[in-house]
Fold:
Amino acid sequence: MSTGTARRRTPAEHAQRHAAAARGTGTLTGVGTAALFILRRNWLRLAIWALVLASMIPVVYDSQQQAFPTQAARDAYAQVANTPAVAAMTGLPYAAGSLGGILVIKIWMTLAVALAFAVVFLVTRNGRADEEAGRTELLRSTALGRHAYPSANYLVSAALCLATGLLISLLCLSVELPATGSWVMGASIAGTGLAFIGLAAICGQLASTSRGANSLGVALIGLFYFIRAAADLQAEGVNPSAASWFSPIGWAQNMRAFGEDNWWPLLALASLGLAGCLLALRLESTRDLRAGLLPERRGPAAAGSFTTTALGLALRLQRSSLIGWFLGAAVSGLFFGSVAQAMSSLLDPENPFARNFVGTGHSMLDGVLGIFVLFNALLAGAFAIQCLGAARSEEESGRLEQQLAGSLARGTWLGAHLLIAVLGSGVILLLGGYLTGAASQGSAAPALLAGACLAFWPAVLSLLGLQLLAFGYVPRFTTAIAWAAYGISVMAAMFGGLFSLSEDVIRATPFGAIPRMPAEDFSWAPLAVLLLISLVLGAAGMGRFNRRDVLAN
Amino acid sequence: MASNAPAIEVSGLAKNFGRTAALSGLDLRVETGQVAGFLGPNGSGKSTTIRILLGLLKADGGTARMLGADPWQDAVALHRRVAYVPGEVNLWPNLTGGQAISILSKLHGEVDERRRAELLDLFDLDPTKKARSYSKGNRQKVALVAALSSRAELLLLDEPTSGLDPLMEQVFTSCIREAAAQGRSVLLSSHIFAEVEKLCETVTIIRDGRTVESGRLAELRHLQRTQVTVEVAGNPAELAGVPGIEELQLSGATASFSVDPDLLPGVLAALAAHSPRNLVSAPPSLEDLFLRHYSEDPALPVSARGGER
Ligand SMILES: Nc1ncnc2c1ncn2[C@@H]1O[C@H](COP(=O)(O)OP(=O)(O)O)[C@@H](O)[C@H]1O
Ligand SMILES: [Mg+2]
Structure:
């Protein structure tokens, strides 16, 4: 992997090079040591990625075998499998009449894309992130060759891909799927990873921060995913359009495990990976340490007048997080709504486990909707705690001190953060509930479900109240206390019955206290009590915060 | 608020963190329009004092007044007239340096936009870069530009030059001189003596949360003793009896001692009688005074402590 071999060298240079090689100062010297070092630093991460991804194979295989136990069932499925949704999300169902083909439909895309994410994060972690943190500087000053550490980084990532692919193939073989298909299955997933190592390596040269490198890598995964989705949507039967060849994910799909079992796209995938790594090494020798080839993103030279207010600043700091949570609530609402009907007809009313979740009061559909309302409330609760947690991190980082050293009252500052957490959680509840109803194809009125979700607002507020109390009295433990309280409330509301907690105990926790409409009937009392608790706790916490020392750590 | 009140008036200030006493009897006074140095080794309580003055920490004892008001009760109103530069500047990594300057300077009261542009230029700071990419020095510059572009009457600066290179330190020095010329009051905390000596009219030296010395630099200089090292032909131990010679240390034919400047003529006359072969005399140095307060053992001879100048 040395660079500059194309150039003619003078005899003197040759001599120098030979001498250097003899002394062990080539650009790759120490690549083995570096690889061991990277392995030591990442082995747990690597093991988790490989094992979690590979373990999906037996899990999904079992469930599919149960869903389609007979060849007749699989043939029936093959008739209806080719829908635009399946083509766009997971690829064309070219072998839906076999268990191997069904396995590909259900899990191949997830595994391939997940492995691509894994290598992007891994290459950045041991590449650009190290450089950003100044660790690379330290390494360069040692006896390691110039290309040794980055090469080791790429090699370790490649090893992850190969190990994951091998495990997948072996697990496929272990459930007695066809041998060739099993090997192509593992190879096509490993190949996707290899290709993205090359792309991630280049991203690490372009961006100057690890965030930037990761964002670029993830954007490439997204881009290539959409290219192949478009190609699969424009398929003729189960053959994708030619656009599929513009995406490495498409190349890997075209290996068609358990179908045609093509091997040759693997060569293209591996070549892309190798070419990317070589180019990255080349680029690395032409640039300064810590610099990126892309210019750093600039921003405004001054803040707008709204951003300089307490509320404006808090909103600006939370902007991307707010967008993320709102999108999450919308997507999960749409998802819940669209599966509500199907789920309630799937659930066996006699199954005690199912009963435990959906309750015994109303119809199965209402029970399922009630569960979704609760899920949405849990989402809003997690958002609220994370959002108010920003107040604590402002204090911890010392940025609060600088703001309060200005003419900003403590109450105004904390009030701004609180307002966003309170209103934001309200928006999540309404949005999630409304969209669940809207996507439920008439199973429930959107406004009704929005209201059912909003009934959980006092539960969320009571958790915020406790968080404020902790922030006032024991600021160092705010985060721990808030999440512990949240975790206990979630466990009680979701699994309390399974753990044979008494009804009274469950009713004494925030999410358990609120009537779970439409499965249960509405009543004001628990809402009023929780609201009162929120106010008392919140006021006590706020009052204490006004009187305590502001301390950075 | 009384216009003739001192900018800062602190007496007997005490503050405990759990069992550690950060401050125990700290006195500090800064007159209006004065540039005052606040010197002390790391951990001596400078930042704690400034945080109490900013109403971020509540004192456990003693009194503190700033611009004639109570720093805890009147915090918000007071902060319109005060600008602060912390020792460790933390910025929002996703915002640009320029956005951070806008936010911070608005909090310090009225902003002078023209001055802001000048300062950005002087400190050679690119305000369009994300704060994530700033070095410690650049973060410090952000806080300095924000503080200096405000029209605050009082500047509280907590080791403001700790991340600046020498060139930027010069820019800082001239900015503080300018602020002083405009009649603003400045409290400059530092653990580097030379910085205070360069800029300040008065200095307060603290150690272990206590004020150990304070006054005008000129007066303090006068209080200092001249250091003499001399090699004599006879027995240097005989010098012990000479009036004015103190802290005498002997090694072979060499004697080191300190002398009150007023008694120097008599001492020199006495030395002449011992036929000195070599004599080194160091002028009274404030750094020595400072180092004397730093060192654990106050009896240690000043000459043995040597500061770099
Ligand atoms: N938040 C805190 N918790 C515990 N001890 C502290 C805290 N802040 C400061 N101290 C202690 O108080 C003393 C004075 O610290 P500080 O005011 O930061 O000193 P300086 O600014 O002069 O270096 C030190 O001993 C320090 O360890
Ligand atoms: Mg300090």
User: Anything to note?
Assistant: Chain B has a mean pLDDT of 87. Residues A 551; B 17, 20, 22, 40, 42-48 surround adenosine-5'-diphosphate (ligand 1) (CB under 6 Å).
